[in-house]
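seq as requested:
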Amino acid sequence: MTSKSPDDESAVAPSRSAGVGDTEQAETLTQLREAISVIDQRHAEGESDFIAGLSGPGEGVEDAVLGESVEESAGGWTEGDAGSAPDFAEALSFADGEADAVESAEDGADFDADYAKAKKTAMNMLAMRDHSREELRRKLVKRDLMPEAVDELIVKLEKSRLLNDEEFAHRFVRAQRENRKLSRSVLKRELSKKGISAELAAEAVAEVDGEEELAREVAAKKAASTRRLDHEVRERRILGMLARRGFPSDICIRVTREVLAED
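C-alpha cells:
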C-alpha cells in the first residue's frame, strides 16, 4: 500500500479551492442575470426610478432588486472593477436608452398624427368661411389635438396666407355691416371675441362710415313692422333695437323720433 506524501495532499487542495470559487462565481452570475431580468421587467412596466443612484450590482442591488446581498467575492466584482462590471452596467444603460427612444418615437408619432388631423380639420373650416388666427386655433385645440401641432400648422397657414388677421378683419366688418347692420362699436367687440387685436379692429372699422344713415335704416324697418302698435310701444321697440346694434344713444333717440314722425 502506497502512502500519500504531504506534497501529494497539497496538490489536491487547489482543485477543491478552485471548485468552490467556480461555484461562487456561478451563483453570482446567476444572481446578476436574475437582477437584469427583474430590471427589464420593471422597466417595461414603467418603473424607471427604482434603479436611480445604483452604481453596480455590488452596491444597493440587495435593496433594489434581489432582496439579498451580492457579496464582493473573488468570483464577483467590486466597485471600479472594469473587468467584471460591463455586462450589468451596459444592461442598465441599454434599458434606459431604449425607453427614451421608444418614448421619443411615440411622441413623434402622436405629433404627426395630430398635425395631420389638425390640417384636415382646418382646411374644412376655412373652406366653410374665413377664420381669424386665434379663432381657428381655439377650435382645433378643443378637439384634443396637441397644441404644439396646432401652433405649427397655424404658422404654416399664415405663411401661405390662408390665414391673415388683417384681411379677415376687413372682410368681417364689411359683411357684418351689410348683413346685420351692426354699429362700429359692436363690430369692434365682435372682432375682439375672435382674437383680433384692438389695432387691427380699429383699422378695419375706420373704413365704414354712415353711422347715422345705417341707424335710420334699421329704425325705419322696425317702425314699418310695428305700425299697429301704440306709439309708446313702437318707440320703445325701435330704441331697443338700435341700442342692441350698438348705436350711440343720441343717434338712437334722434332717428327714432324722425322715422315715427314720418310714418
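Residues 86-128 form the longest helix (43 residues).
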